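Tokens in:
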């Protein structure tokens, strides 16, 4: 496996059907990175989830591609640590046909800080 060129994560909030509710800028893959979504959880549609898409640049094709993704559903969003399974592309915003990225147990570890308005 070749190392990724300019790996980054694009967070977004999406309902299972429809368009992006809110998103944040790409942030480099690093420890201790904070991401803020500027939308109250109460304002998200009922079946929404926060998606984290792992993006990387393909120099030969000169484009940014998705490597994998993970998500957390609205009913799982509580303050504290969470381990999110990483799924293979393409990103399935409907959350129906999910295939793990690897046979190994890979997780994206996040700490959620949910602020009340």
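Residues out:
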């Amino acid at each position: 496996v070749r190392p990724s060129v300019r790996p980054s994560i694009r967070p977004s909030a999406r309902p299972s059907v429809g368009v992006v509710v809110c998103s944040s800028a790409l942030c480099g893959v690093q420890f201790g990175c904070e991401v803020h979504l500027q939308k109250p959880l109460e304002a998200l549609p009922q079946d929404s989830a926060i998606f984290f898409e792992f993006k990387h640049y393909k120099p030969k094709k000169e484009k940014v591609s998705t490597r994998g993704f993970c998500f957390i559903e609205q009913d799982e969003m509580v303050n504290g640590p969470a381990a999110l399974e990483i799924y293979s592309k393409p990103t399935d915003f409907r959350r129906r046909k999910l295939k793990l990225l690897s046979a190994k147990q890979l997780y994206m570890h996040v700490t959620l800080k949910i602020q009340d308005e």
